[in-house]
Design brief:
Layout lengths: L2 H6 L6 E6 L5 E7 L2 H4 L12 H9 L2 E6 L3 H15 L14 E5 L8 E5 L2 H6 L6 E3 L5 H14 L7 H10 L6 H4 L13 H15 L3 H17 L3 H46 L8 E10 L2 E11 L2 E2 L5 E4 L8 H19 L6 E5 L2 H13 L7 E5 L4 E3 L14 H31 L1
Parallel strand pairs: 7-11, 11-12
Antiparallel strand pairs: 1-2, 1-3, 4-5, 4-6, 7-8, 8-9, 8-10, 12-13
Helix pairs in contact: 10-11, 11-14, 12-13
């Protein structure tokens, strides 16, 4: 779809929009009450804009959007996207320095959960075993709602330490208003033991750590046990907690869908960078990587791993025992493995890769190209990544490509290469172990 057609088909709904440059890189993220009304406004009178906005609009070649249920959801998602992509033309919200967190004082006998503002750097500097931080939370109002929800499901202590200790010292049996409203368990006057309170704190940690399934399983077991013991009031309270958490989990699952879209967009951007870096004609959606493992030619093996869309496709991994190449000959072994892989794939009419990555330099790359030409597959591009200096070799260049260590494209092919190496080493060790046992 052409860019003008995308502008004309935008939804009249709240959400976020991501503007991209000619390479597909996200250069700006924004939110809108109505995506249809907001986004086209950028392109109506660009000559009247400030230099920074004019530069942004001049570089936009594509866009993507995500519809949200309301403006507040759009705000949260906008913050997440900015932190994920670090767009060139966004000047704020690039880190969690001013974002609030939740702090759980687990070093106290009766921990409480409070809001706090602290940067990642400060958290690392003042790391305390007795404090747990959760966050950051980009939207303060959303955080307040979260804290209120937790307080309703798991009523932890809310009062300050001085008031709490004074109540304990008084020894009064009378509970405060929060207890009668169901917003506190009144440990200050002995209404709950330290042990039982600690179990509730464990549930709060599971909840805030995103381990909802484990928490629900735990609560269901407790509810059944309470029912069997005829503790019907306790069972009812546990049932209410389960229903509240399930309701929250449904909303969280919707957010997870959006995060998956976000991750997919991020992977796509890295693949575009890799395509550009090693001069590929098409996007390397499917990468097959090969590695050889041997010790002085003994029990030599080859491995192949597959990455689809930037993610490992474990069920497609393959391993090979070297059969035809004696002694120490990495290039010869690589040629054997590639010949066996694609001879079989052609016979099965399987899915061919967009890129073949070999562990090694010019020798391995040229060897792979020779085999592919024999099989009539010389149209498949080949690249080699040599360990050490991490140089990339491609057939059409006499000199290797050196990408900066910060390059996401380099990180991706390093990850693919290392996965092939790990898989080969594991298979080689297995064969060595069997050989020793057999002696």
């Amino acid at each position: 779809m052409k860019f003008e057609e995308k502008l004309a088909s935008l939804p009249d709904a709240p959400g976020v929009y991501m503007m991209k440059d000619i390479t597909g890189r996200v250069i700006y993220v924004g939110k809108a009450k109505s995506i249809r009304k907001r986004v086209p406004s950028y392109f109506q009178s660009p000559s009247t804009y400030a230099p920074r906005t004019f530069a942004l609009v001049s570089n936009v070649r594509d866009l993507q959007y995500i519809v949200t249920r309301n403006e507040k959801e759009a705000l949260v998602l906008e913050n997440e996207l900015i932190k994920y992509f670090h767009p060139k033309y966004n000047i704020a919200l690039r880190d969690d320095k001013t974002y609030p967190h939740l702090k759980l004082t687990v070093d106290e006998d009766f921990p409480k959960l409070v809001m706090t503002r602290i940067s990642k750097k400060e958290r690392m500097k003042h790391r305390t075993p007795g404090i747990k931080y959760f966050g950051p939370y980009p939207d303060v109002s959303s955080l307040k709602r979260t804290l209120k929800t937790i307080q309703r499901i798991f009523p932890l202590v809310k009062c300050n330490k001085g008031f709490f200790l004074a109540r304990r010292k008084e020894g009064s049996p009378n509970s405060c208003l929060d207890f009668h409203l169901g917003q506190c368990l009144a440990p200050c006057v002995g209404r709950i033991s330290k042990e039982d309170y600690g179990k509730i704190v464990e549930k709060v940690v599971l909840f805030l750590s995103g381990k909802g399934e484990r928490l629900l399983k735990k609560l269901n077991e407790e509810m059944k046990k309470a029912s069997r013991g005829l503790e019907f009031e306790k069972a009812k309270n546990l049932r209410d907690q389960i229903q509240a958490i399930q309701s929250i989990s449904q909303r969280v699952n919707l957010r997870q869908v959006e995060k998956q879209k976000l991750k997919a967009a991020g992977k796509g951007q890295v693949l575009i960078e890799l395509q550009k870096a090693i001069e590929l004609e098409s996007l390397p959606e499917r990468i097959e990587a090969f590695d050889i493992s041997e010790i002085y030619g003994d029990s030599a093996v080859g491995s192949m791993v597959v990455f689809s869309g930037g993610k490992p496709e474990n069920e497609s991994y393959r391993k090979f025992k070297i059969k035809t190449v004696p002694g120490i000959d990495d290039v010869g072994m690589m040629k054997e493995v590639i010949r066996r892989r694609y001879t079989r794939l052609l016979g099965e009419k399987g899915l061919l890769p967009d890129l073949i990555l070999v562990d090694g330099g010019k020798g391995q790359v040229n060897g792979a190209k020779v085999v592919l030409k024999e099989l009539g597959l010389d149209r498949i591009p080949v690249a080699g990544l040599a360990k050490g200096e991490e140089l990339i070799f491609i057939p059409q260049r006499s000199r290797p490509i050196h990408l900066p260590s910060s390059s996401p494209a380099l990180h991706l092919i390093q990850h693919v290469r290392d996965e092939a190496h790990r898989f080969a080493i594991r298979y080689h060790r297995l064969l060595q172990k069997k050989k020793l046992i057999g002696k």
